[in-house]
Amino acid sequence: AQSVTQLGSHVSVSEGALVLLRCNYSSSVPPYLFWYVQYPNQGLQLLLKYTTGATLVKGINGFEAEFKKSETSFHLTKPSAHMSDAAEYFCAVISYNQGGKLIFGQGTELSVKP
Amino acid sequence: DTAVSQTPKYLVTQMGNDKSIKCEQNLGHDTMYWYKQDSKKFLKIMFSYNNKELIINETVPNRFSPKSPDKAHLNLHINSLELGDSAVYFCASSHNADTQYFGPGTRLTVL
Q1: Helix, strand, or coil (residue A6)
Q2: What whole-number distance in Å separates Cα of residue A100 and Cα of residue B97?
Q3: Are residues B45 and A96, on separate chains, in Cβ contact within 8 Å?
Q4: How far apart are the C-alpha atoms of A35 and A107, rounded to whole Å?
Q5: In terms of DSSP bridges, do strands B106-110 and B10-13 run parallel, antiparallel, or are they unpaired?
Q6: Cα angle B104-B107-B111, degrees, rounded to a multiple of 5
Q7: What is the pLDDT of residues B66-108, one digit of tens each?
Q8: What stretches of chain A adopt beta strand conformation (E)?
Q9: Which of B44, B89, B52 has its CA nearest to residue A98?
Q10: How near does any CA of chain B get to the CA of A54, in Å?
Q11: Helix/strand/coil percentages in chain B, nearest 5
Q12: Distance from the A24 Cα atom to the nearest Cα atom in chain B, whole angstroms
C-alpha cells in the first residue's frame, strides 16, 4: 500500500527565509507525486507534480521539489518566503492500482513572520 | 469560467436531515472524485466515478450516496445526517486518473 508522511505539522519561517517542507512516501511502484496548497477557506491548488523524467520539478509561485528515489522523499522548497505563502501544504501520491485515488499526507501549515 | 464548481459553499443543517452537494466540472474530464477533509484537515477519498461508473467506494457509511448523471456532474447525497458528518467536502476531477483539480469545497455543519 502507498502512503505519504509529512514531517512537521507546522513550520514557521521569516519573510525572505528559505522554505523547506518535508515529504516522504512509501510506494511499491514508481510513484507519481504531487504538492497541493490550500489557502484559508479555499480549495486545493496544484503547486507541482512529478511523474517521470527530470527529478527537479518547478511549480507555481517559485516553489520547486526534488524527487529522490534513494531517500523516498519529495521535499518542497522555496528560496525566499513571502507573506502570501502562508497556507496549508499537502503532499500526495496517486494510487493507480486503487482507481487513481490521491493519498494525502497529514498536511503542513506554513506560517510566515514579517 | 470556474473549472470545478460546487454548491452550496456552506451548508448548515440539523441532525437527521437529508442533504445534497452538487459538483460540476467544465474541463472535459472523465473522472470525478469526492474527498472529505476532517477538522484536523486530513483529506481522504470517498468515491470516484469514471464515465458515470463507480470505480472507488471507500469505507463510507451507506448514508452517503454519490450520483453521476453525466461525465460533468457528480453529486453527493447524504441521508440521516450525523454530527460526525461535519467536515469540508471537496469534489475533484481528472483526465485518465492524472492530475486532479479540486473545487472550492462545501463546509457542512451538522447541529
Answers
A1: strand
A2: 5
A3: no
A4: 10
A5: parallel
A6: 170
A7: 999 999 999 999 999 999 999 999 999 999 778 999 999 999 9
A8: 3-7, 10-14, 19-26, 33-38, 44-50, 56-58, 64-68, 73-78, 87-95, 101-104, 108-113
A9: B44
A10: 17
A11: 5, 55, 40
A12: 16
A34 touches chain B (CB under 8 A): yes
Q: How many angstroms separate the CA atoms of B79 and A41, rounded?
A: 25
B41 contacts on A by Cβ (under 8 Å): 38, 88, 106-107
Coil, helix or strand at residue A109: strand
**CA neighbor of A99 nearest in space, from B91, B54, B101, B55:** B55
Task: Give backbone dihedrals phi and psi of A66, rounded to 5 degrees, phi first.
Answer: -120, 125
Q: Is residue A85 classed as helix, strand or coil in its secondary structure?
A: helix
Q: Considering only CB atoms, which chain A residues are within 8 Å of B8?
A: none
CA-CA-CA-CA dihedral for A84, B26, B43, B22, to nearest 10: 120
Nearest by Cα to B99 from B36, B41, B38, B25: B25
CA separation for the pair A26, A73 (Å, rounded): 9
Asked if the model's pLDDT at residue A1 lies above 90, the reply is no
Contacts of B83 (CB under 8 A, 6+ apart): B15, B110
Q: pLDDT tens digits, residue range A53-94?
A: 899 999 999 999 999 999 999 999 999 999 999 999 999 998
